[in-house]
Design brief:
Helices cover 41% and strands 16% of the residues. The protein has 18 helices and 13 strands. By secondary structure, the chain is of the alpha/beta class. The protein is elongated and about 75 Å long. Helix 14 links the parallel strand 12 and strand 13. Bound molecules: adenosine-5'-triphosphate (ATP) and magnesium ion (MG). The site of adenosine-5'-triphosphate (ATP) has 21 residues, from helix 7, strand 12 and helix 15.
Length: 425
């Protein structure tokens, strides 16, 4: 995909995290990228981009020396999938350098050029020579991520699915219940095809909550990594509603579930390729794969109860995922089970202060309603469609799918968030 002059030339760039929340950039596949920079600023932007979750599979090597160094490097060795060339100079010498490069460049390699000259004639010449994208320095990491990822998502391809990871700050806080209700609302109210992926293989409750008992599910995939492709995953999905399917956990203990950090990668890739929205029910564990599931998601929702241990853990989770995702919207959190009779609580305002962010929702303790829903295998909206908590789930569905043009929730619980997003938009 070729774009011109839309990068840092923007006189009023939005903060990177908001830009990334607005747009949906599909992760790049396992490709090799070599960059030849002329300035330390561009090298730094590329280095920051290489640490972005969307380039986690790509191998990016950065060196200095611009096009001359590239020519030298490729005279005797094959070229990578992507070559990034920074060219500080004026148009003519950029073109001459690229002509020389084309003689040593393998036909399959794509070339990105980073320059300072904002000139449509140069741009046309670059495109004529087969350059894939021209970026104007100074660049932000997200500009590089967008451009590199754009090379591998063809315009004809279906948009790649958005992953929403939901995890609890402590066990039993209601993370799964909230994940399932949000996914159900995404499917029902936004009519977006969604899959709930239950990553709690031993104890997962998604099957119970949706009143499903599928014979197959996520275990069949994770224990047969060689068989995974979109058709195989498709056959493992249990259909819950018109737009909602479930990749269920076995919830049996005859095996143990010790996985490596990359165990779920191919499953999620296959889901992303066919499903617009994937909700990950991430169990309360800190393992290589659970960390990877959170960090690799497009959005993260942490669920916390209003006590001190939850506050500490939520802060740790938010801090670590925020640091690992500098080009993304920060992780969101909600408070659940507030107002338990006689239980002392940390107030939402104190949570907000400690976490430096408002909760995107506060959901009260409603044991009757949640207990009935859990035991009947129903969603809150099926039990009480007009209850304000059902409305909260609908609003969360909109926020987490990036549809923030929403009417204010009647309860007003999401007002601060919506106002904040409106202001930023
Ligand atoms: N707001 C609420 N009011 C009352 N009960 C709730 C509320 N939210 C969730 N629950 C109940 O809390 C229990 C635990 O919920 P859930 O299994 O979703 O938690 P979890 O965080 O996923 O737990 P785990 O750590 O086992 O994965 C369930 O019985 C659920 O119905
Ligand atoms: Mg759970």
């Amino acid at each position: 995909m070729i774009r011109y002059g839309q990068n840092s030339a923007d006189p009023d760039p939005k903060p990177a995290d908001i830009a990334a929340a607005d747009e949906h950039i599909a992760p790049a596949p396992r490709v090799s990228i070599q960059a030849f920079c002329e300035t330390v600023e561009t090298a730094a932007a590329l280095q920051a981009a290489s640490e972005d979750r969307r380039l986690i599979k790509a191998h990016l090597k950065i060196q200095m020396g611009g096009i001359a160094a590239a020519l030298e490097a490729y005279r005797g060795s094959p070229t990578p999938n992507v070559i990034v060339i920074e060219a500080e100079s004026r148009g003519d010498s950029i073109l001459a350098g690229l002509d020389a490069l084309s003689e040593v460049c393998d036909p399959g390699s794509r070339v990105l050029v980073i320059g300072r000259v904002n000139d449509v004639i140069l741009y046309r010449e670059l495109i004529r020579r087969g350059v894939s994208d021209y970026l104007i320095a100074p660049l932000g990491a997200i500009d590089v991520v967008r451009s590199v990822c754009g090379l591998f998502s063809s315009p004809q391809a279906k948009p790649v699915g958005r992953v929403i990871a939901v995890a609890g700050a402590k066990g039993g806080v209601g993370a799964s219940t909230i994940a399932h209700n949000i996914a159900w609302a995404i499917a029902r109210d936004l009519a977006l095809d969604s899959v709930v992926t239950d990553l709690d293989l031993a104890y997962g409750t998604a099957g119970l909550d949706y009143n499903q008992d599928p014979p197959q599910g996520i275990a069949d995939a994770v224990f047969s990594p060689d068989r995974i492709d979109t058709n195989f995953i498709d056959r493992l999905l249990a259909k819950c509603t018109d737009h909602l399917s479930l990749l269920a956990a076995p919830a049996t203990l005859d095996r143990v579930y010790d996985f490596g950090p990359e165990a779920f990668d191919t499953i999620l890739d296959a889901l992303r390729a066919t499903v617009p929205c994937i909700v990950l029910d991430v169990p309360h564990q800190w393992t290589g794969w659970s960390r990877r599931a959170l960090i690799g998601a497009d959005d993260i929702l942490i669920v916390a109860e209003p006590d001190l241990a939850n506050l500490r853990n939520a802060k740790n989770l938010i801090d670590i995922t925020k640091a690992a995702r500098p080009n993304d919207r920060r992780p969101l959190y909600c408070l659940n089970k507030t107002g338990v009779p006689k239980r002392p609580e940390i107030k939402p305002a104190d949570f907000a202060k400690a976490l430096d962010d408002e909760p995107i929702a506060t959901i009260g303790f409603e044991p009757q309603m949640f207990g009935t829903a859990a035991n009947n295998g129903q969603m809150i909206a099926e039990i009480s469609a007009n209850h304000r908590i059902a409305e909260t789930f609908r609003t969360l569905a909109q926020v987490l799918t990036g549809r923030t043009e929403i009417k204010k929730s009647r309860s007003g619980l999401l007002t601060p968030l919506i106002d904040k997003m409106r202001k930023r938009a």
